[in-house]
From TrEMBL:
<keyword id="KW-0238">DNA-binding</keyword>
<dbReference type="Pfam" id="PF12833">
    <property type="entry name" value="HTH_18"/>
</dbReference>
<dbReference type="InterPro" id="IPR018060">
    <property type="entry name" value="HTH_AraC"/>
</dbReference>
<keyword id="KW-0805">Transcription regulation</keyword>
<keyword id="KW-0804">Transcription</keyword>
<dbReference type="InterPro" id="IPR018062">
    <property type="entry name" value="HTH_AraC-typ_CS"/>
</dbReference>
<feature type="domain" description="HTH araC/xylS-type">
    <location>
        <begin position="214"/>
        <end position="312"/>
    </location>
</feature>
<dbReference type="InterPro" id="IPR052158">
    <property type="entry name" value="INH-QAR"/>
</dbReference>
<dbReference type="Pfam" id="PF01965">
    <property type="entry name" value="DJ-1_PfpI"/>
</dbReference>
<dbReference type="InterPro" id="IPR002818">
    <property type="entry name" value="DJ-1/PfpI"/>
</dbReference>
<dbReference type="GO" id="GO:0003700">
    <property type="term" value="F:DNA-binding transcription factor activity"/>
</dbReference>
<dbReference type="InterPro" id="IPR029062">
    <property type="entry name" value="Class_I_gatase-like"/>
</dbReference>
<dbReference type="GO" id="GO:0043565">
    <property type="term" value="F:sequence-specific DNA binding"/>
</dbReference>
<protein>
    <submittedName>
        <fullName>Transcriptional regulator containing an amidase domain and an AraC-type DNA-binding HTH domain</fullName>
    </submittedName>
</protein>
<dbReference type="InterPro" id="IPR009057">
    <property type="entry name" value="Homeodomain-like_sf"/>
</dbReference>
Length: 320
């Protein structure tokens, strides 16, 4: 039986504390447990969660010394750097062969211990820039739901921690056990780590200075589903094609074709999430010349099909 130690601390996310408890212990009710779960306190016997209720813990960090798996739930951004005692125990455990897991912002703690240097890791997309700046020796990837590096696993934010923990069950106990747990939890049985986080598409900042270029682009934004060529836009701005291309890149930080594709993909996401239009109609309303072209661009951008995107947000997997 694998021994799992989950580190709890003051202001811990109640959700992130509950995830390993549910996946590794509660969901096994009525069947033979595969794990022995221990919650250990970083601070003191009684801690207050971020949701405001208190949790009483029976032990300190001692379980880390003999754990097969150590889970660091999401580390609150408001907390100071993790204490050296915790970092030292993580390093020692990793050297013994313990699997170290950082859920969401828990990846910051794992990286602070130096265990991610030279490795690939992920965390919540909203903290991607901060993580990359703080830990330049880590190969950071903001897109996956989780990254399995063998002896270390990091996950993206919130619900991705469930996917990460189910992945650990699948890795150690097999797909059948993991799928059974997912059914008990009424959650998706399998979302691969390579599936991308739902990161809001970056939108080029609109220049503050109003020019003939920005006025035309503002108009284009309202007719994004219509055909727009460089030549026609350059003409409307009273510029040559070359001048338009140069000024657009200088003002928006990308080419016009990149900007246009991003806007159309954002519109298609909104239509998929809020309507039941057939995929072909979504493609047309978003300004794509063909359904096949739309599917190709959507898959390339989000690593998921339009129908799958709709299913994730609307709860329907019907192909249309």
């Amino acid at each position: 039986m694998q021994k799992i130690a989950v580190v709890a601390f003051e202001n811990i996310s109640a959700f992130h504390l509950s995830v390993p408890c549910m996946v590794f212990q509660d969901a096994f009710v009525g069947s033979q447990p595969k794990f022995k779960l221990e919650i250990c306190s970083l601070d003191r016997a009684e801690i207050t969660t971020g949701s405001g209720f208190d949790v009483i813990l029976a032990q300190g960090l001692e379980p880390l010394d003999s754990a097969d798996i150590i889970v660091i739930p999401s580390w609150p951004d408001s907390l100071p750097n993790p204490p050296q005692l915790l970092l030292d125990k993580l390093v020692a455990a990793h050297q013994r062969g313990t699997l170290v897991v950082g859920l969401c912002l828990g990846a910051f703690v794992v990286a602070e211990a130096g265990l991610l240097d030279g490795k690939t890791a992920t965390t919540h997309w909203a903290f991607a820039e901060k993580f990359a700046e703080r830990f330049p020796n880590v190969e950071f990837d903001s897109e996956p739901l989780f990254v399995d590096q063998g002896s270390i696993i990091t996950s993206a934010g919130i619900a991705a921690s469930i996917d990460c923990c189910l992945h650990i069950v699948r890795r150690l106990c097999g797909s059948s056990t993991a799928n059974q747990l997912a059914r008990v939890m009424v959650t998706a049985p399998f979302r691969s780590g390579g599936q991308k986080q739902y990161i809001p598409s970056p939108v080029a900042n609109r220049p503050e200075q109003v020019t003939s270029l920005t006025k035309v682009i503002d108009q284009i934004s309202e007719t994004i589903n219509q055909p727009h060529s460089l030549d026609s836009l350059a003409q409307r701005c009273a510029m040559s094609r070359r001048t338009f291309t140069r000024q657009f890149k200088a003002s928006y930080g990308c080419t016009f074709s990149q900007w246009l594709l991003t806007q159309r993909l954002k519109l298609s996401q909104q239509l998929l999430e809020s309507t039941q239009y057939p995929i072909a109609q979504v493609a047309e309303l978003s300004g794509f010349g063909s359904e096949s072209g739309f599917r190709k661009n959507f898959n390339a951008a989000f690593d998921i099909s339009p129908s799958q995107w709709r299913a994730q947000f609307q709860g329907s997997s019907k192909e249309t």
